[in-house]
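Need fresh eyes. Consider my entry:
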Amino acid sequence: MSRLVHSSRGPVLVRGARVRESGRASAGASDVLLSGGRIVEVGGPLAAPSGATVVDGSGLWLLPGWIDLQLNDIDWLRRGARSPEEHAARVREVAAYQAARGVTGFVLATLAAPPDEIVLYLQGMRRVLDEPLSPADGAFLGALVEGTFMNPALSGAQNPSWVFPPGRALLDRFLDTGAVRLVNLAPERSEDALELIAHATRRGAVVGAGHAKPHAERLREAVRAGLRYAIHLGNGPTGSSLKRFHDGGMLEEALRNDAIAATVILDGWHVHPELVRDWIARKEVSRVIAVSDAGFAMEVPRGEFEVFGVRGEASPDGRYLRVVPRDAGPGPGPSPLSSDTGALFGSAVHMRDVFENALNLLTREMAGVYTRRHPALPLEEALAAASALCSRNAASLLGLADRGEIAAGRRGDVVLAGISGGPGAYAVEVVAVCAG
């Protein structure tokens, strides 16, 4: 378990760590002073203010705290409807759990579920946003309304019975809670979907598209209406078309369009690592955001579970979650020689794993699918890229100018980590966390 240090409770001086500073990775050791929830100074050697907590960073890296734009809490939601007060208490538990593991910003996703239950959940989230009781509560950034307005034909591990055509009345019910930060809206679901994207944008939500299959031209129209990002690109699934009609599908346009950021589930299972390298090369690091899409916000259970009528289970080794297929009745099932592996049910990783996966992906030379070879990046360059994928780019999408990087004046959200091993096989250990 890492040590959680709160800069808002007094000055903190991290002494002698290698720093993943804004725009670069430091080759030498630096001191970092945090106070009042902010980074005061980076450099060194720095004098410790009176009463400061001094943390020895020798041999360790100081990284920006990780920001997860898609975290699910299946274990809580499967228990049924709860009051806003109960939801608020649970969100605080999740915040404490995540903050102790290096996550200094996270968004909780809603699933395809009865709208009344979603509203209660959002109302509980708003209580935490309005009244953070601890520095860890400050890691909670709001909700992603993911399942309600997806394309039901592409519902993946969510129950299509609780997917609704995009409509202003229901959208406004959610937005009126004041807890919604992100909205998933499939642009092809209705003629007025573009107007709803513009409406949600005007109301301050960041709109994305996932579990969707608009053609490329429709997705461009959605971008002009305000759509900002593709949600878990390649999964959900993401609609694709190799034909020329309408310039292809959503996957093709999301990759080619620089106005679209893309979140990618970097658990090693949802998207083949070779494709991830291809997509990073095509989109460039600045337009890719690594997310966990963790199915369970805290501990991952063994065995089967069910949420809103969909059954899931952890793989025997606990490395991924999958949907338990319904009994298809008599007749042959999918061939074991086919590419049909069924739907995954979120991931079984958290952001420490995601960051470690990104670091290892970038530090080994490897083949791509559409690109013959990708070079191995030096550790310092890979750390800078992995921090952008796991911290800076998420903050940028949300418009949080004071998060995601280590620089004077930014929030004091940092992770002190040990990094051992070698290229392609690094291990990342969270030693201490400072949450502004």
Observations:
- The chain has two domains: 3-63+404-434, 66-296+347-398.
- The longest strand covers residues 12-19.
- The domain at 3-63+404-434 is CATH 2.30.40.10 (Urease, subunit C; domain 1).
